[in-house]
Structures are given as C-alpha cells and as structure tokens.
Amino acid sequence: MKKEINLTLYAITDERFHNKENIYESVERAILGGVTVVQYRAKKKMACEMYEEALLVREVTRKYHVPFIVNDRLDLALSVNADGVHVGQTDLPIHVIRRIVGSEFIVGLSTHNLEQVKRANEEGLADYLGFGPVFPTTTKENPDPVTGIENLCKAVEISKIPIVAIGGINSSNIFEVLKCKPAGVAVVRAIFEKNAPDKNVKILKKFFNNFNK
Q: What's the family (predicted)?
C-alpha cells in the first residue's frame, strides 16, 4: 500500500442512520468502540448537505487520528480534506484519480468478482479493494450479485492488494468471513443500528480477538 492504513474494522455511514444532528456523535462512538477506518457514504442527499456532514466526520476522525474516506465523490473528498476516496467500477477511473491526487491519497476500489480483482492487480493503482457483497445486503437499492464466502477466499488468495470484505456482514457471520483472512471487514448496519455503535463495535471486535487467539 502507498499509505499505511489499518483496515481491520471499516465503518461506513448510512443516511438511514445519520444526519447532520447525530453523525458526529455516532461516528465518535464507533471510533471509541474500536473502528479503524470511517467512510462517509450518502446516495440521496444534496451536495451541500453531504458537504456539511462530511465536514463533521472529518472533524471527529481527525480528533482520533482515524483515516477518513469519502465514497464515490472525489470533489467532496478534496473539499473536506479527507484522507481518501472509495470508488466503484462505474465511477471516475483510478488512473484519472491518481493523476489528480498523486500517490499519497488513499484510493479504494469496489470489486464484485474475481475478474475485477485481477484487473485491479494489473493496474496496481488501488490501495485496497472492497470485495462483495459477501452476503445479501439491504444497504444498497440495487446490490451486485452475492459473491459468497468461497469467492471471497479466492479473492484474498489472488489479490496483490489488501482486500476488505463487505456486504451483509454481522455478528452471526463475521467469523466465517475472518477465516478467509481479508485485510479488513467493512460494516454498515451491524455497527450503526439500534443507535449503539460503540456497543456494536465491541461485539464485532470480540470475534477478531477470538479469531486471533
């Protein structure tokens, strides 16, 4: 990786759980619970609203020295001085992003099958790859086909770039995911649901601790 980043437990915000009034506190509680990366993601909000929320996430992640990634929007990431951006297969190409931001800016790429992982290997421009959805997920209106555990394990095996597993991961299946030995696990609902991110994160962290014993 071009920039050192602990991908272990990667939290992604969700507009169903967050707004300008609660996002700072919610992200802070997740960080205090043990989250190692925070991504701001919103799909249906106006740019000005996203900007205001992202500024709050930037503030709290800087306070605790946790890397801050913005989903999809390079313009938003740059405007709030985020540490990086995460893009999908149909977003701005990574070689274009690299030309704009250089090598120190963190760039993550979503992958949904092994062919996309192989292409990312050949490009060698991403700092990490999100791979999934490993399980069915409700956080996207039109999710990609479920990859399953077997393909996640294969992706980790063939990838030259750190893999972050994503999609429907929670306390009931995270141990199965950890068996594939990804660099990290990205979680939305299982962290921020029930307005208890600190408690939810601690529950997930127990699985990491038990797995590493």
A: Belongs to the thiamine-phosphate synthase family.
